[in-house]
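Exam revision sheet. Question 4 asks you to relate a sequence to its structure. Input first:
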Amino acid sequence: MVDNRINRLIFHVDMDAFFTSIEQRDNTALQGKPVIVGSLPGNRGVVSAASYEARVFGVHSAMPINLAYKRCPQGIYLRPRMAVYVEESKKIMALLHSFTPTIEQISVDEAFMDMSGTEKLWGPPKKAAQRISEAIQKEIGLTASIGVANNKYCAKLASDLDKPQGITIVPFEEGKLIAWLGPLAVSRIWGVGKITEKALSKKGIQKIGELQEVPNQTLERWFGKQGRILYNLCRGRDERPMEEESKAKSISREHTFSQDCFDPELWRQTLLSLSREVAMRARKACCSGRTVVLTYRKPNFARHSRRITLDEPVQLARDIFSYARMLLEKESAHLKGLRLIGVGITSFDRTFQQDLFSQNDSIDGWDHSERAMDAIASRFGKTAIVRAGELKKKR
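Answer key, structure tokens:
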């Protein structure tokens, strides 16, 4: 007899047009209008986020801001309010934790949830997903799309298929899963960018089902080690475990640009934002890292990482960003574009924890500052305290 029970239940929660949805929620006059968050027209820079109304005009994230203005001159252009977005992210993650203790946040607006064994609490998968969706809308005032599967890859893929506020359940039985994936474009496979998509298209492969017919040996001959990954992913196979930061051997954050990014300033801005996330999570996990790792993926899909091992562990956003930026600048001479950028720390020292009001003179003033900001933000919200530089930008 076939055991049809769901042994592993993974949800991927992806907020819908996160930045612009917050702006439209906080200012009802913006609702139903094309809103673009990012640089302002007339300046160098790119789009950070576009509302669904703006996307109708072909505006999307990472697009040069002046091109966005040409396509949508009637759009409403706003500078990002990162402190607000991060605060909303914290509320959302806290809400998700009320459904399951096992959460893996992968960016400011998305996270995996391990819902295995929670059926008696929240009902079958679709009912549980509906409860999460309704809770986000009621308590946060935003919407999210949710993918449900037996692994992280399929759950993430599914969450993007029915936006906004969609719920997509992936088949759990292998044969049905392979058939479900078949009609989807190969670009839906996690990590397949324009270069790989074009290479597959030249070989007559445009759908996942067509890729499923290619033997593993052939894919490895075409793409090397990446071929084996493609062979498994096109069949919906992904055995990666959930990584809770308290148990993980590293803390890292990555950002994939929706299109290849050729703006070094945006690389640095993204790296700073990611460094802040890593630092906050390191302090939450009471650990610091002796190794800072820079990760990037070129437009040709090649993934690279560079690292530096330090004499003393780091936990501050300032330090993490400083070393990551140094690694990036060493690479920038031969970098023309990036598809992905990320930063992380590893080689943990979990004994590294100073009391906020310690009188130890060796503690850097920035350590006091960031820890004090953590404490204030934890009690009153992250918008309660900002850096002077952020106030200047707001003016």
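Marking note for examiners. Residues 1-5, 351-365, 381-395 have pLDDT under 50 and may be disordered.
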